[in-house]
Design a protein that fits this description.
By secondary structure, this protein is mainly β. It folds into 2 domains: 349 residues, 6 Propeller (Neuraminidase); 76 residues, Immunoglobulin-like. The chain contains 2 helices and 32 strands. Strand 8 and strand 9 form a beta hairpin. The longest helix has 14 residues.
Length: 466
Amino acid sequence: MKCFAAFLFLVASILALPVQAQTTTFPVGATTITVSTLAGNLAVPWELVWGPDNFIWMTERGGRISRVNPTSGEVIPLLTVPDVATSSEGGLLGMALHPDFATSPYLYIVYNYNDNGYKEKLVRYTYSAAGTGSLSNPQVLLGNITATTTHSGSRLLILPDRTILMTTGDAQLRPEAQNVNSLNGKVLRLNLDGSIPANNPIAGSPTYSYGHRNPQGLVRAGNGLIYSTEHGQDAEDELNLIEPNRNYGWPTVEGNCNLPEEQAFCTANNVRAPLYSWGPTIAVAGLAYYDSPAIPEWRNNLLAVALKASKLVQLPLTTNGSAVGAATDFLNTFGRLRAICVSPQGRVYVSTSNRDGRGTPAATDDRILVLENRSYVALPTVAAKATAFQIWPNPARQTVFVRLPSPSASSGTAELSDALGRVVRTLPWPKGQTELSIPTNDLQSGVYAFRLRDGQRQYSQRVVIQ
């Protein structure tokens, strides 16, 4: 059986080549969105992450991790995780990349495996960019999580404080979702080395929030708030605002606290009601935050994709992010949709999941679809005058200093990229700041590009590191 499975996976790897893009369009307000296929012949892509190398990083449920060229659609395999055990909904699931990838080239994945029963674990791999790239040195950060063939979660999200959130399903052990000492039915929070943060809501415990059934979407929005999409049982799927030490009700509460027995439980147990719910269930899965001017109608919106309902859902956030407006549905002709990510250029990438045993696959499924506004032209880079926008010393050795002509109008990110376009240093640029120092002593000699967007202005300049 294992040999046969390996053969099937090899065939899938060979077939996972770029396919000829056939386009369709749909309107979003006054904007026309073009949909095309970036890559096809994939095997249940479960996670899509936009990487610091400007490639899409992808997991497939059978165990393969790849990089996908967003221009050509070429799929570049990195590793097939050897001990992934697929069973119904289980297998290789969520993934995250270390935010300081240039200096800490770590990739985090969560997957199911067999060890005296079906289990789940969080593992860190080390990436090497040599050649076509490789992953090695797996380190188990959290393991031995009880699992079954359904309700495993699991998405990963790294926060600015360098902690990682991991969602887990209840593994069909419904009461465990309310047990704060259990790892099931939770959002867990760990340090990036697997230790438990000292400021977790429960001392010595990775539990961050509890009372979850099967959360499969997780994102931090521009407002700093954390949102999750969660599979309900029959009546209601949920969009939740995740807060530390909050109870989300399952299994006593599904969706809103609107039944008499639910209302009593919610009052007594500090239950956080969902921001939005779908009834009947749509099997809502991946979740992304969109705030690019490329599609202005989607700015400050959450975008969720659904499996059973086969659609993309737009969920507009209020200014403070504490509520959502009326949902709008799109992209309902491609079958089951599981994962979603957004590029810095405002393109949206969505994966189909028609080969997961519950869909009707097309000839080129599974696919990664690209949604883009082809009429959008990015704002031109502001030509920085020597007296207004300064970078010094240049050439530099130990540190590069940057000064803006006036305080930044909004928070953003400053980046250094090497000559191949790979981001090697990323630093936050807080609102109101005028200066920043960037350490460069660990960078190789060469020519680099500095980029910063300050509200409606953009700055870029060449930097030489000696």
